[in-house]
Request: fold
Amino acid sequence: MGKAALIDGKAFAAGLRDRIGTAITDLKSKHGTVPGLAVVLVGEDPASQVYVRNKGKQTIESGMASFEHKLDVATSQDTLLKLIADLNADPAVDGILVQLPLPDHIDAQAVLDT
Reply:
């Protein structure tokens, strides 16, 4: 067996973000389009708030459009599913991240399937 290689996770992530930024710049110049990521947070879980904030920041730093949707913990499943359907139909949105965990009254699998 050989020696295990030590990977610098922060350096790897920075390099990956640089490559993604370059790819997005090329996409903009060659095709005139900007990828968009919508992030949906239901409730006020502190760890989820930090995660969503960081995703939005990294999305923008990479040159993509970021769309954040923060919903009250009492939001109904139907309201959430309607928002996801609207985002799916929005040509500016290429990806949707629904932050888990969701409140107990919402079926997470139904949301993810949507």
